[in-house]
Design goal:
InterPro entries: AA_synth_put, BB2672. With 194 residues, this protein is α+β, with helices and mostly antiparallel strands. The chain has 3 helices and 7 strands, in the order ββαβααββββ.
Length: 194
Amino acid sequence: MPGLTLRKQQVSVEEIFHEGGPRVAPPLRRAAMVSVIVNPFAGRYEPDIAPFMETLKPLGLAMARRLVEALGGDPAVVEGYGKGAIVGAGGEIEHGALWHVPGGYAMREILGGAKAIVPSTKKVGGPGARLDVPVTHVNASYVRSHFDAIEVGIPDAPRADEMALVLVMTTGPRVHARVGGLAAADIKGEDGLR
């Protein structure tokens, strides 16, 4: 990817069969991908950082495709998503905000136009920092059963001059979700909320 220096990537898939209650079949699958890149703005203040979002777009698309593949290859099984960034100590929190558009729109495109806003989190942290990435339903943010978070991190990342960019996807609600709210079966699909 031109203009981007990638050091490493990590893909993980978790399968949850039960949470103390009855076993579910198929299991809930939760996938996360982290890409560690050089932060071109580390160590200095740069007033105009927005153009770097264009550089990140191909990475977002590639990561979204890899996550769908990790979950079996069918975008239709993906029901939840989220994104995040950990910026190394030589950067600033705003550098993590550069991931909002390339990460979020990539997942929405790969999933065929998902309607809900992609929840996000970001922070500045050193090697081994962990991030709880929020998850919501891909088409309706008010579907409570899909409110979740996936913890991610890499032991040696991000270094001070790096960023760890994250995308996550899930195949369904929390196992044994039972606290009410809008059900996925009742989504109207009009506004990304309901």
